[in-house]
Amino acid sequence: MEKGEIKDNGDLLSSLINQRVKNLFKSFLSEIETIKLENLIMLDKVKAKTDSSFVSDINYMNDKKFESVRKKILDEGNDCIREIDTAISSFDCNFNQEKFDKIQKSKKIIKKFFAPTTYEK
User: What is the pTM of this model?
Assistant: First the structure.
């Protein structure tokens, strides 16, 4: 079986759920990037009125903290996917293409794409 090939209904269900979970934790990653950007903007404003040591002291989203939060989001998301895959393997599933097509057409399944946030002084 090739990578990405679906061999049965359980694989299809797992694939659909995994994609939604990945989209969820990608949205969390996007949010922490936004928080980091907003923090940098705030720090620039504070730096204009105070000294650099004070700015360093109040920086709540430094690179180390950002990477730690990012890693935790990825780890938790991957753990969630593994746990769901394990649970799904216990079920025998039937797939109804007609119902699935209706769900897709009604936009109840939404595909999102994420772009990284950038900040330039």
Answer: 0.71
Q: Do 77 and 29 touch, CB atoms closer than 8 A?
A: no
Contact 18, 25 (CB under 8 A): no
Tell me if 68 is assigned to some domain: yes
φ, ψ for residue 4 (rounded to 5)? 85, -10
Tell me the residue range of the domain where 76 lies.
32-89
46 to each of 66, 106, 113, how far by Cα in Å? 20, 48, 34
* Number of domain units in the chain: 1
CA nearest neighbour of 12 among 114, 101, 95, 91:
95
- Does residue 24 lie in a domain region? no
Token duo for residue 5: 């090939």
Question: Other CB atoms closer than 10 Å to residue 120's CB: what's the count?
Answer: 3
Mean of the pLDDT values across residues 48-67? 93
Residue 47 pLDDT exceeds 60: yes
Does a structural domain hold residue 14?
A: no
Check if the beta carbon of residue 47 is closer than 8 Å to that of residue 121.
no
Distance (Å, rounded) from C-alpha 15 to C-alpha 85? 9
